Amino acid sequence: xxxxxxxxxxxxxxxxxxxxxxxxxxxxxxxxxxxxxxxxxxxxxxxxxxxxxxxxxxxxxxxxxxxxxxxxxxxxxxxxxxxxxxxxxxxxxxxxxxxxxxxxxxxxxxxxxxxxxxxxxxxxxxxxxxxxxxxxxxxxxxxxxxxxxxxxxxxxxxxxxxxxxxxxxxxxxxxxxxxxxxxxxxxxxxxxxxxxxxxxxxxxxxxxxxxxxxxxxxxxxxxxxxxxxxxxxxxxxxxxxxxxxxxxxxxxxxxxxxxxxxxxxxxxxxxxxxxxxxxxxxxxxxxxxxxxxxxxxxxxxxxxxxxxxxxxxxxxxxxxxxxxxxxxxxxxxxxxxxxxxxxxxxxxxxxxxxxxxxxxxxxxxxxxxxxxxxxxxxxxxxxxxxxxxxxxxxxxxxxxxxxx
Length: 404
Description:
- The protein is an alpha+beta fold and 404 residues long.
- It has 3 domains: 3-125, no CATH class; 130-283, L,D-transpeptidase catalytic domain-like (Beta Barrel), CATH 2.40.440; 286-403, Nuclear Transport Factor 2, Chain: A (Roll).
- It is 30% helix and 27% strand.
- The strands form 6 sheets. The chain has a 6-stranded mixed beta sheet.
- β20 and β21 (396-403) form a beta hairpin.
- α1 (8-19) packs across α2.
């Protein structure tokens, strides 16, 4: 039987899958003008398959999905669609995975993966917008990773002289229980600003992690202050017999296909590359980011200058009433700085390698990292410092400070 002779039921079922992709916020994302070449071997072929089914061009759909399986033999979603197309030769289908003996949970997972992948192709990031979180990368940070858990997507940006350029984006899996990790074993992916801390090669890992793993710095300083715990949050690959996993399938890690991880891995800088994880990425115009960079930079410079002034009241005015640094509160910090300033005849402070990123998990919080060069009449040192600033009533205040 020629597939073109099928009734409309099968086509309508697959069309419903394509149309079920949530619309999202058109203010943040815009339709693609063309399909990215980097996805031609996987997601674009998947989209062509679904589109062909929606147009009732079933032979063409089978040809595309067969090409996809040849390229990715372990792509389970492609096998499911191919199975549907073959079953549809003898009876109509109402939806993806519609044959009665398919395991319901497995079909649900694959349907969710299809929706996530199609949504990413239908709603490309607006080329005139960038993630709000990447306010300023330091020059040595050549790249940045931004993860959107609600869209099962990882965006990879290049830092080109302070300007951001989207290089690629990838389908990812995240925590089975969602996002906003709080404790060990909750199967959630953390939300916040993190960094790649090391590289674990395939040879040192079990096959479960696929092409390798890149641990990130969860829990960070703010997580620990908020009582969040747990460990072992990684970017990693998939088992050798699995091309990709469902959107919600990990114990909290961010999981890419092995091919995508291998494409991304050479650009990850240990100790430098920021990994910013959000539940729903907020997009802004580059000019808005530039203005925030300038304004916050002026705030940081004011803090630096007031420290040099040895005027304790001016210096402490930059600190929140909820500030803490180790065992210090804002009051004990004031007393300590007052004693230090009284023993100094002069202070010089220089900041270099400055980066600041908005924290997607906290309202109006900036994560600031820099190298601090301190000199006075009786002390000289260099340290890497991290601060968390919060906007309190239109004024940025330091709420945490410590070594990075």
